[in-house]
Amino acid sequence: MAYTFNPPKRYLMGPGPSDAHPRVLKAMASPLIGHLDPHFVTMMDQVKDMVQKTFLTQNNLTFVVSAPGSAGMETCLANLLEPGDECIICINGVFGGRMAEIAERCGATVHKVMTPWGKVTSEQQIKDALKDCPKPKLVALVHAETSTGALQPLEEISKLVHDVDSLLVVDAVTSYCGVPLKVDEWGIDAIYTGSQKNLSAPPGLSPVSFSPRAVEVLENRKTKVQSWFLDLNLVKNYWVGAKRAYHHTAPVSAVFALHEALNLVMEEGLENRWKRHYEVHDYLQQELEALGFKYLVDKAHRLPNLNSVYLPESVTDEAALRTKLLNDFNIEVGGGLGDFAGKIWRIGIMGESCTHNHVNMLIGALKEIL
Asked: For residues 205 and 50, is the Cβ–Cβ distance under 8 A?
């Protein structure tokens, strides 16, 4: 018995993935070539160059992990932490908690900086944490917390971290290519992101970048990285140099798509792309608040491309409303996580889904339903 599958056309306005540009879908359908084919190797160099440009970094160790953003998270932490190391992890949502979990699995002693969901970590909290742990191997935090839509300021915290000669590790899965993110200027030592958010490529790849300071830590490890697949001492030889050492079979079609998605970013221009996300966010906020939605995060720390909102008081079953949006209007939005499950929506306007027309479709559907 053969099974057929024809996915419906959806308008993706949840926490990810976002809609893909037709050029990206076309690139993904290109004929396969070998992952060590000279043409593919040339394209890998182009991908690396565009990732450096979009991260605003000169870091030589910049490449794409052949797995989703959570593997990028594990790549950063597993390569920099060894058993017995101390680190500080800032938690204000799901993904800060996930970083702490991975760090503990690496054998590190984790000092947790806890912040209420929807808020951001303050400089004073970092100062207080450094009193308890004055020499952490690294300090890690989430730039854009996908579970709440909070956007974390980084520059002042970066200075505090480097003043004690520690590394700054940043989760940029939902901020990359959507809001200002300046790896070198802000002194970020290790950073990871995902392909499916503001970049609007298919899920499954994680661009990462490591500063020279982070590379030095990596090269002076006393123990092997606990993950063979994510060991940068091995992976970097596949992404760097004229002669590539075989490490794994790269997801060729996914890299084709990523290459085209990065090209679209370069054509639009990073600053133009940031501006578009803020402009569409302002329009969405105006329309949602007119319908009685209220934002979870204060305006000063609000992530424009992931909007967490309380529903109007007249809505008693948010899941039923989301289901009706999906089934009747083909519009996907996300529900809340953790303590916010059943209480908020997470509305994404990311990459190709960040248009006034997407907002108009959503608001028109909501007006009809409500």
From this structure: no
What are the φ/ψ torsions at residue 264 (nearest 5 degrees)? -65, -40
Closest CA to 56 of 242, 261, 193: 193
Task: State the Cα angle at 315 between 310 and 321, rounded to 5°.
Answer: 95
Does residue 247 surpass a pLDDT of 90? no
The 3-class secondary structure across 15-82, one letter per residue, is CCCCCCCHHHHHHHCCCCCCCCCHHHHHHHHHHHHHHHHHHCCCCCEEEEECCCHHHHHHHHHHHHCC
Whole-angstrom Cα Rg for the chain:
21
pLDDT digits (tens, 9 = 90+) for 120-169: 999 999 999 999 999 999 999 999 999 999 999 999 999 999 999 999 99
CA distance 78 to 108: 10
How far apart, in whole angstroms, are the C-alpha atoms of residue 8 and residue 348?
A: 19
CA distance 102 to 74: 7
CB 12 within 8 A of CB 332: yes
Question: Which residue's structure tokens are 């679209």?
Answer: 264
Q: Do 126 and 89 meet the contact criterion of CB atoms below 8 Å apart?
A: no
Helix (DSSP H) and strand (DSSP E) numbers for the chain = 12, 15
Q: How far apart (Å, rounded) are the C-alpha atoms in residues 248 and 250?
A: 6
Spatial neighbors of 59 by CB under 8 A, at least 6 apart, are 52, 183, 184, 209, 210, 211, 212
How far is residue 10's CA from residue 326's CA, in Å, rounded to a whole number?
8
Q: Look up the pTM and report it.
A: 0.96
Contact by Cβ (8 Å): 133, 165: no
With CA atoms as reference, report the closest residue to 144 among 337, 302, 17: 302
- Tell the residue number behind the tokens 């079979």, with chain if given: 249
Pairing of the two strands 190-192 and 167-171: parallel
* DSSP string over 138-166: EEEEESEETTTTEE---HHHHHHHHHTT-
The residues pairing with 71 across neighbouring beta strands, listed in sequence order, are none
Distance of CA 21 to the CA centre of its chain: 19
- Comparing CA positions, the residue from 279, 301, 294 lying closest to residue 150 is 301
- As given in the structure block, the two tokens for residue 132 are 């308890």
Residue pair 32/253 in contact by the 8 Å Cβ criterion: yes
